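Q: What would this complex look like in 3D?
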Amino acid sequence: MIRSLFFAPANRPDLLAKFPRFAADCYVIDLEDGTPPAAKAQARSALAASVASLRAANLPGLLTVRVNEPGSEHYLADLEAAFATDADGVVIPKLEHPAQLFPAAHWIRNRDRTAPRKQPRCIIGGIESIGGVIEAVNLCRADPNLVAVYFGAEDFAAEMGGRRTALGNEVLYARSQVVIGAKAAGITAIDQAVTDIRDDALFREDAARGRELGYVGKICVLPRQVAIANEAFAPAADEVAYARRLIEAYRVAVAAGKGTIDFEGKMIDGPLLKRAEQTVKRAERVGAR
Amino acid sequence: MIRSLFFAPANRPDLLAKFPRFAADCYVIDLEDGTPPAAKAQARSALAASVASLRAANLPGLLTVRVNEPGSEHYLADLEAAFATDADGVVIPKLEHPAQLFPAAHWIRNRDRTAPRKQPRCIIGGIESIGGVIEAVNLCRADPNLVAVYFGAEDFAAEMGGRRTALGNEVLYARSQVVIGAKAAGITAIDQAVTDIRDDALFREDAARGRELGYVGKICVLPRQVAIANEAFAPAADEVAYARRLIEAYRVAVAAGKGTIDFEGKMIDGPLLKRAEQTVKRAERVGAR
Amino acid sequence: MIRSLFFAPANRPDLLAKFPRFAADCYVIDLEDGTPPAAKAQARSALAASVASLRAANLPGLLTVRVNEPGSEHYLADLEAAFATDADGVVIPKLEHPAQLFPAAHWIRNRDRTAPRKQPRCIIGGIESIGGVIEAVNLCRADPNLVAVYFGAEDFAAEMGGRRTALGNEVLYARSQVVIGAKAAGITAIDQAVTDIRDDALFREDAARGRELGYVGKICVLPRQVAIANEAFAPAADEVAYARRLIEAYRVAVAAGKGTIDFEGKMIDGPLLKRAEQTVKRAERVGAR
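A: Here is my prediction, written as structure tokens for the whole assembly.
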């Protein structure tokens, strides 16, 4: 369950030190876009200390490292450095081919086996290029260690040469294809970032649209977005109450031999019951808002 | 031509008996979601009588049976029961693989051949799961007996863990992929249900959007939706009049050696002529509204 | 760079003669939809003279010939006639299979080689059928001589039996798939036509939506649309100024060891920098509006 995937640059110990203040479901120490090229080598060297210090802080969520993209000169060195730490997993950006997952999967299956962990490490993939979007369905099911993917709309739109709008129709196809790929593979789907710094309303609206599509969490590029994401991806109290009423009404109906019921103005059968059960289950895990 | 695909539960003879009151293009006796699990076996046993009684009522449309999904324990028994009746075909929900069509296609090709029918039985498929949407193009062309598919947005959205909105952007990708798959295969595409019981305006709007995408009919979960669907998928009188004027203007233009004309504010060439001809042809089959 | 792909019928020398008045990036002498069937043979015969005369006029953009669709009886004769002229390339409508590109590619690789040209001839493909949209990704990368594709929404919608709206949600899936296919192959993506003759505002809005998706130009079916397209696909002056400020701020930040900056209310990192650089580069090529 990753409602909030919260990034801070690997070369900014001051920002990393603030992770414990924000209750993210997953924290990301970012060696990629957040760290400028000239600072990448040093940030990599500092990774062990950063992870150790954050481990000591008992973060409430997963702690991961985003490595540089598979095509870059940094990729294998970043993975090596990340796996040398006690991080819970790695975030691999700009995934385009299943083979790009191999080095990380190899380490998880082999090296980690000789030094067993409570939980196996996880891989979170970024689908944020044209090639990645085209291959989304295959990428999501490419490796059992890939537990989640995020859709990176900014990178995708940059490669397309397109322009972002608040409504986001220009990325609806790609955003849909990625969440469908993730759900087909049974993995977690994390929605695009909102880069507007002071526009919390836009973040909320965008999260609502992501949730409608089936996303269960969101990239957070600002600390204040973490709490909003956690809330946005929890069901609302009235949704939960409605779901409970629906489930009860359906139980009564089925006992009376009916498979379809007229419930509060809607024709309810299997699919709507299933959605209501998901809502209640989700509220039990993350609470209602 | 299926403008209205009208469902009633197989275990509700009282509702099935009302079929003749509503002029659907295709009626469905529903053994799946409409019939609760505990009632399925008995509903299957009652199928022969239900079909016989509805046959005697001379319904104006096709009479079909929706069996339970291919993955369920009921699938083959339901098919067996459906083919033992005089129904015009079967509706197979949650199609995901071409092979799932095989048992029904086998019966049509073999058993029905020894007891010939005026019209071969048909299969109508439901594309309403993530796997089905991903495979939509292949599914639609998988078997010559598959004459139509419907897009089941509620089931799809439930599996995605998404949330439905009135505008429906959250299913636009899937709804588009299914209608494209159907049209590529040359089969009938039937649009999603609207579950709001008293909101006829929403049904009309949703039908209009489905028609824009290329759908030619709609799932009806309520009797009152049948007439609305029949009307919504017929061309409007002013559309037909416009189309006739366009065709005539184009005829005159072509005779004068022009392939492109300025007609009532639009630049008209082949594609718009083709659409006008479709409109007139459709009005000749189903009337205008 | 094709901001405006401007069509006139091959059988209308009066309209072709007006090409020099409008500064299109690419002119198309149209043997397909613009020329009625009975006039096609004669238009083909007149092609050499039309091209020669337009060559003499020193058009500012590419001069091409749209042949009839690959499935038609005219296809090979049209190609033969087009390649016998000094045109810069051919436009092949309704592409559905890579093999359909073969005859044109063969001529470019073989015949043109014996009579070398400054620039090799180009092929521009039309993706405007259901089959073409389904195969868009493969079609776009099928041949190195294919330098651009356009999305033909009217033909596509006609084959779907759908209806066009101003907003265009009914073709969003197809329009997205085509531009993604083009960008994945690194070729130019040209957006759909607007057939409303006097509605320049609609043309502008539709061009803006196309640009958001990543399209870099538009089909023009009317002379007045050429200048509007050229303008619509150039960056706005304030966009360029914003991009220049962003690039400078990012340069300063990187020098200070930051990879992510808070810039005028947005959280900026790699992707947004990349988009800003594209904007400036584009303004340097086509100017700002």
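A: To summarize the key features: The two ends of chain B are 17 Å apart (CA to CA). Residues 237-287 of chain B form one domain.
Q: Very helpful, thank you.
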